[in-house]
Each structure stands twice: as structure tokens, then as C-alpha cells.
């Protein structure tokens, strides 16, 4: 268990990816998309993300299945695989300090998992290409569970998978709506802003590290 006063109940930290482990670019991953690939970010947003993303991120449709026809209309020379590779690479600035801190927590015997809203392709990229498979105990993501982190089903599924009860789990997330949902499910939640070290965030919850 985590050797932090008042946090002996923690069996696993559930850590968000985007906005926590991956720091978003201030201008967004698609800032140079039109210059680099000839794809209009506005058209991609309106014709793909606004129309198809909900089904894709919940695992009800494949990324390439929905992205390819859109690109055929707005950027015929760009394949869905080329666009996905560009997107994933641009949107992968890691917080190495947090990763190091989580490794110390894990070394103390506390499990560290990913809890994130992803579709299957980017989830695989994060787990395998970014090397998270060697740094985390498991990954729980929206397309695999069929639920977002604002849905109670997400938390119930994670509990069923891990065998831990909600009172043994702590979600670290940058989105207030996710933290509200986690707390309603009986979990504890810690808001991540990037302004504090992990030890300070944990200390705020349960005592000095």
C-alpha cells in the first residue's frame, strides 16, 4: 500500500491520459495540419469529430471506417492511416516528471492504471508505442468499456475488472465532470492541474508524503 499518511486505503491510482500524462499543445495538435498534410482542421472537426467521434470513441465504429470517407471528400490525397499517424505523434508530449513519480508510487506496491477516453487505435498507440505497457498495470478506456468517464458504467466496469471497490481507487484527472462522476461512483478523486507534484496532490488528500 502507498506509504502516505491517510492514504493507506489506496490500492490503485487511476490516471487520466490527455491533460495529465500527455500535455496538450497550447495551439492544439492540428495547428499545422493544413500546412503539413493539406487537411483543414475546421473541416475535419465539422465533418469527422462532430459527426462520428461519439460512435468511434465508444467502440461502436472503427476510426478508419469513419475517417477514410471524410478524408476522401476533404483531402483526397491523405489516407486515414497517414492522418492518424500524424495526429497521434503530434498529440503525445509526455509529462516525464509525473511518469517518474508514478513509478515511485508503483514501486511501493500500489497499482497504477490508465483510465482514459480513447478509441481503439490511439489506445494501442499509447499503450505500445509510447511505452506505457511497461509502466502501468492496466489500461481502461472508453471504446473498450463502451462508456465515457462521465458514465457510471465506466467505474463499475473498472471495479469488476480489477476486483477493487470504489473506496480503494483514486482517480487523477484534469476534468471536473469526470471527478464528479468518479465520486458519485464511490471513488476518491484528485484534480490535476500540472501545478503540483504528485506527492503534493496526494498529500492534499491524506497527509504528508
Q: Can you describe this structure?
A:
The protein is α/β, with parallel strands linked by helices and 209 residues long. The chain has 2 domains: 12-24 and 93-206, Rossmann fold (3-Layer(aba) Sandwich); 33-90, no CATH class. 48% of the residues lie in helices and 11% in strands. It contains 10 helices and 5 strands, in the order βαααααβαβααβαβα. It has helices spanning 33-37, 41-57, 63-74, 80-90, 96-107, 120-129, 142-145, 152-162, 176-184, 198-206; strands at residues 12-15, 111-116, 138-141, 169-173, 188-191. It has a 5-stranded parallel β-sheet with strand order 3-2-1-4-5, sandwiched between helices. Strand 4, helix 9 (176-184) and strand 5 form a beta-alpha-beta unit. Helix 2 runs antiparallel to helix 3 (63-74). The longest helix is centred in the first third of the chain and has 17 residues, at 41-57. The chain is globular.
In the sheet with the most strands, the strands line up as 3-2-1-4-5
Helix content: 40-55%
CATH class of the largest domain: Alpha Beta
CATH architecture of the largest domain: 3-Layer(aba) Sandwich
Low-confidence stretches: 1-5
Q: N-to-C terminal Cα separation, in Å?
A: 13 Å
Instruction: Count structural domains.
Output: 2
Q: What pattern of helices and strands is seen along the backbone? A: EHHHHHEHEHHEHEH
* Coarse morphology: globular
> What is the CATH topology classification name of the largest domain?
Rossmann fold
Mean pLDDT rating: 94
Discrete helix count: 10
* Tally of DSSP β-strands: 5
Share of residues in strands: 5-15%
How many strands, what sense, and barrel or not for the largest sheet? 5 strands, parallel
**What's the CATH H-level homologous superfamily of the largest domain?**
HAD superfamily/HAD-like
Question: What Rg do the Cα atoms give?
Answer: 18 Å
Query: In terms of structural class, how would the helical and strand content be classed?
Result: alpha/beta
Amino acid at each position: 500500500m502507498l506509504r502516505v499518511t491517510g492514504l493507506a486505503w489506496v490500492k490503485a491510482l487511476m490516471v487520466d491520459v490527455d491533460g495529465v500524462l500527455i500535455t496538450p499543445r497550447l495551439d492544439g495538435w492540428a495547428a499545422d495540419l493544413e500546412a503539413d498534410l493539406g487537411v483543414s482542421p475546421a473541416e475535419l472537426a465539422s465533418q469527422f469529430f462532430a459527426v462520428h467521434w461519439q460512435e468511434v470513441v465508444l467502440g461502436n465504429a472503427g476510426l478508419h471506417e469513419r475517417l477514410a470517407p471524410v478524408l476522401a471528400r476533404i483531402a483526397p490525397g491523405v489516407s486515414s492511416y497517414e492522418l492518424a499517424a500524424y495526429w497521434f505523434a503530434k498529440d503525445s508530449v509526455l509529462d516525464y516528471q509525473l511518469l517518474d513519480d508514478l513509478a515511485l508510487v508503483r514501486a511501493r506496491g500500489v497499482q497504477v492504471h490508465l483510465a482514459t477516453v480513447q478509441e481503439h487505435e490511439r489506445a494501442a498507440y499509447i499503450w505500445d508505442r509510447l511505452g506505457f505497457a511497461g509502466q502501468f498495470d492496466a489500461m481502461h478506456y472508453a471504446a473498450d468499456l463502451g462508456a465515457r468517464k462521465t458514465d457510471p458504467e465506466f467505474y463499475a466496469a473498472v471495479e469488476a475488472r480489477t476486483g477493487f471497490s470504489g473506496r480503494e481507487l483514486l482517480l487523477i484527472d484534469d476534468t471536473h465532470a469526470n471527478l464528479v462522476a468518479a465520486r458519485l461512483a464511490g471513488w476518491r478523486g484528485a484534480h490535476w492541474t500540472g501545478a503540483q507534484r504528485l506527492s503534493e496532490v496526494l498529500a492534499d488528500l491524506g497527509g504528508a508524503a
